[in-house]
Write a structure and sequence with these properties.
Elements (H helix, E strand, L loop, with lengths): L2 E8 L5 H14 L4 H22 L7 E8 L3 E8 L27 H9 L2 E7 L2 E9 L4
Antiparallel strand pairs: 1-2, 2-3, 3-5, 4-5
Length: about 140
């Protein structure tokens, strides 16, 4: 069985709660393991915050879209926004995770978490939109 949820949200941080609710609903109906629900929510929080604060610099006159497609094998997530071009696969350097906290520069860990928690990521810029596609296989939850 396959299930799809689509959200179109204003670029406001208080709208992230709607994403969490959608993930909880879909995870429950699709019987995802709790660890997978947690990882998906954490990743979408990180990406949502980045879209709102960096992509649109806090300008709430825009919207971004999230599409969640769940089937028997995987969850595919597509995020679309009209913010400034940003490819998290190439524009975000690998963080230094080996140094002590005081020796590390601020930032970069969120995208690192996305890369490590999800199974596949792809990015494209199309019609002045950032489109990030993420896949989380259910057996890796």
């Amino acid at each position: 069985m396959s299930r799809r949820l689509s959200l179109s949200l204003p670029t406001k941080l208080d709208q992230l709660e709607r994403i969490y609710e959608a993930v909880d609903e879909l995870g429950e109906s699709e019987d995802w393991p709790p660890g997978m629900v947690y990882q998906v929510k954490l990743v979408l929080e990180e990406l949502g915050v980045n879209i709102v604060t960096h992509g649109h610099a806090g300008d709430s006159d825009h919207e971004f879209e999230i599409v969640l497609d769940s089937d028997a094998d995987a969850l595919t997530i597509e995020l679309r926004d009209e913010g400034r071009p940003f490819n998290p696969l190439t524009d975000s350097p690998e963080p230094d995770v080996d140094s002590g906290l005081d020796d590390r520069p601020v930032g970069g860990l969120g995208i690192y978490l996305v890369r490590t928690m999800m199974d596949e990521l792809s990015y494209r810029r199309e019609d002045n939109r950032n489109i990030l596609t993420i896949v989380k296989r259910k057996e890796s939850g």
